[in-house]
């Protein structure tokens, strides 16, 4: 399997490669990075709250959330590269010959398998962002007020990451003929995303309110 | 002046440093990076459309947009570090003594100058994202249909970047006593942001529609 190390390149190079016609990173990798940034903002709020007398009553929660955001941001960083690695087989399958009926059949079957692999990255990004959203919601109440704007930025990024990942799920689902497979993902992801969008928007408004806007 | 090179560190290290209690990067730097990612997605759509027969009628527009997205993403990457550099004097000013009346006065005057410097980064991020939004809007019509989901991701990220920058503008405006200064920025930025949010949401819905959602 081709290995990817996009998370190890500089922010500048990531952006430059993104803007080129290179096959990766694409929307999926960007969704993963954006999710990691949103999650890390939650981690920052924990780091700035931990050990502060004023928030001593939440210390245990803050430590738990910090451990969890560390874990989720790590997974999202890995997903930048997993999403790229999941895409390579598909980009190769597009190049398969389809001159004979047999070749056509083989190509279509291979493509179908590859679409099911390619969709996994964005699906996983959505699931992890979902966990991160719940943590930021908690931080809006328990995190240091001095860092409340960072909670606001965090939910804005997580919402964008989740919706971006969803667009990349849809692109793949549109190509998958296995209706049971596509319906199961839709049933799982759409209500989850809709509920998280509402939470993110509520937290953003709450933050604006705290800032007097 | 202290120099920053956050845009040169790896995505992984950027995320790790963000989640720590290090003073930078913060919400402003993340807004700049998110804006750069959103803009670069527009550049990618141009890269994938340029030279294609099917879109020959838009070739000149695509070349113009590509040149512009390159320039804007470059500025946004620079703003990751400018925002950090603008923050250092403020973080030093917080440490000034305030034991005597004279010291108090000097500290408050210094802080006021520093807030006006610190707000510049997020303000500039909003202005540049505003330019990028107009380009993505054009790409929703003129860009390759094969990359339409990337236009959708692009506007989602630009919206999140602009709103994140706005939160960081507000945090600074709340500390600035010069009402003429704060009112002028509010008059410029709020209508711009509201109009861009509407555009981004319209483009996102349009993209979903093209994808059959």
TrEMBL record, chains A, B:
Residue ranges occupied by any Cyclodeaminase/cyclohydrolase domain in the UniProt entry: 10-189
Pfam family for this entry, one: FTCD_C
Keywords: Coiled coil, Hydrolase
Name assigned to this protein: Cyclodeaminase/cyclohydrolase family protein
Source species, domain of life: Bacteria
Coiled-coil intervals, chain numbering: 55-82
InterPro entries: Cyclodeamin/CycHdrlase (IPR007044), Formintransfe-cycloase-like_sf (IPR036178)
Recorded GO MF terms: hydrolase activity
